[in-house]
């Protein structure tokens, strides 16, 4: 249903101009440090992995370098797995879950897979706890040619530089209370449309690809995460965030059509994780653990498929 909520920036029913975007940017503040909370955790990983800088955001190139972690002994005969976090910078466990996986689990799978982890695709968004970049552009709707988001464009260039096919892509996200309190109302105001109030699911869920759903792959991830945290139930209409579930804890989106990060490759296995950090039933560490469990569930499933072939 349409909400009577009115966002404080812009005129109802009118898309934002550069003036409104500038007004929005003026009220954004730095709330945490990418360098202290993220980069300092990446540096020690360079002892065991290849730590590469694949770019830097033009907003402040020294403050916002873009890093990825690659397993060593890269072999074109091994399948490649891409793990991304922080495409939406405010989704904290996506960032720290990716780093935790690299630090604790990636090496266990490196004999079978080439693994590349881009843990914080949107460092400005991380620092400002924001869904958009400074231009009021959503990086996770911008994975297409001539992208308006340099965060998205940078990741696409990284993937292209790897060469070869990507077998799997696991994109780590969160759904938070601020989605309905701030970000979706802001989106409606930016685009000059009515804000339709939604419900934030309490628990973990996945977003697969409508055109390549890979149901057994998604199920394996859900079963892995279930050992760590609870799975989001559907609402009274059998939906999660307005989409019909295809199985417990799974919905599908047309990922390429929407320009989502999980649709940036032609991978066989792709998914987007969604953790709910505002649940009273979880801690921040459990959210990170859920992200790691999701990646492990994905990799273990692919190992089992390989062994059966």
Kindly describe this structure.
- By secondary structure, the protein is of the alpha/beta class.
- The chain is built from 9 helices and 10 strands.
- It has helices at residues 18-26, 34-42, 92-104, 106-109, 123-128, 150-162, 178-191, 215-226, 284-308; strands at residues 50-56, 65-70, 80-85, 114-118, 166-174, 205-209, 239-240, 243-244, 250-253, 269-275.
- The strands form 2 sheets. The protein has an 8-stranded mixed β-sheet with strand order 1-2-4-3-5-10-6-9, sandwiched between helices. The chain has a two-stranded antiparallel sheet with strand order 7-8.
- The longest helix is centred in the C-terminal third of the chain and has 25 residues, at 284-308.
- The radius of gyration is 19 Å and the shape is globular.
- The model has no long low-confidence stretch (mean pLDDT 96).
């Amino acid at each position: 249903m349409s909400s009577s909520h009115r966002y404080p920036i812009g005129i109802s029913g009118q898309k934002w101009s550069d003036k409104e975007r500038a007004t929005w940017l003026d009220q954004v503040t730095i709330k945490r440090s990418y360098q202290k909370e993220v980069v300092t955790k990446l540096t020690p990983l360079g002892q065991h992995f290849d730590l590469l800088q694949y770019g830097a955001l033009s907003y402040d190139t020294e403050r916002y370098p873009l890093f990825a972690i690659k397993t060593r002994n890269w072999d074109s005969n091994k399948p490649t797995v891409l793990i991304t976090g922080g495409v939406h910078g405010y989704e904290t466990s996506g960032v720290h879950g990716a780093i935790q996986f690299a630090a604790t689990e990636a090496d266990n799978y490196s004999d079978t897979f080439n693994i590349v982890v881009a843990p914080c695709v949107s460092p400005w968004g991380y620092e400002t706890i924001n869904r958009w970049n400074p231009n009021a552009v959503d990086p996770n709707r911008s994975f297409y040619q001539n992208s308006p988001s340099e965060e998205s464009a940078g990741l696409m260039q990284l993937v292209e530089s790897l060469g070869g096919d990507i077998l799997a892509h696991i994109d780590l996200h969160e759904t938070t209370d601020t989605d309905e309190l701030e970000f979706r109302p802001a989106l409606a105001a930016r685009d000059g449309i009515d804000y339709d109030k939604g419900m934030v699911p309490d628990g973990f869920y996945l977003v697969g690809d409508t055109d390549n759903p890979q149901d057994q792959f998604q199920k394996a991830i859900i079963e892995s995460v279930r050992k760590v945290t609870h799975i989001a139930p559907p609402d009274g209409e059998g939906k999660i965030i307005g989409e019909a579930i295809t199985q417990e804890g799974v919905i599908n989106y047309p990922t390429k059509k929407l320009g989502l990060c999980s649709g940036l490759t032609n991978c066989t296995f792709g998914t987007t994780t969604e953790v709910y950090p505002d649940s009273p039933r979880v801690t921040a560490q459990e959210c990170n653990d859920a992200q790691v469990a999701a990646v492990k569930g994905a990799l273990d499933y692919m190992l089992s498929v390989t062994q059966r072939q």
